[in-house]
Amino acid sequence: MSCLDATFTLTPRSPEYSGVSGYASLSCFGTDAGPPSPWDFNSLYASNRFAFEDNSAADPSLDYAQFANRNKTRFLAAWIDLGNFAAANKQLALIFGFDVIYTSNPGGRVLVYSDAGLLKDQQLVYGDNQFLLEVESLELSFMVYFIHAGGNWFFRGLSGYVV
Amino acid sequence: MAIIRVTKEQIEAANKAREAALKKDANFRRFEEQRFEKAAMAREAALQKKREAAAAPKEEQPS
Known about the structure:
heterodimer; A: mainly beta; 6-stranded antiparallel sheet; globular; B: mainly alpha; 6% strand; elongated
């Protein structure tokens, strides 16, 4: 819960933001779906989530800054361009929202990448539902990738707060 | 909550790496071009719909 309205929130059903503050978009390159609920398309659409299953996870030992590796796996990509705030020395708090459905292992695992390399190998734990990227400068637009690297989990959305 | 800090230097390095990869890898270049073309076409289609809706004559209300 936040006391501030998000500058933007990108979800499967609302993957683009375009406004006075700038532009942000979310792309999904591969996801899982099928019975039973809540993994089926209807449930995923209704709950506005993407599902990722353990058996489709990427090999975490590869370098996903390389397109040739990234292109063979399931991942999300966010493009952020909030240059309008650059002069005001603003920063961006980017919240990645998720659900882990099973209490038992595996939880979930996401490799957070830029085009230059791995930023963080992030575990998604049952009972938790978000992690934060603190982006120190909005001068330059940037791309961030979230590689599905393990577990059974749902992606809920990305919310950006300019602070 | 886990926190991942992304510095300005990391963003600069990422953008340089991206530019280099786009020059070097024709598959990546094609992939990105198609993605941006698709987004541009979707935005144009949405704008066209708005223009058509604005230009359409409004139905008369029954008296």
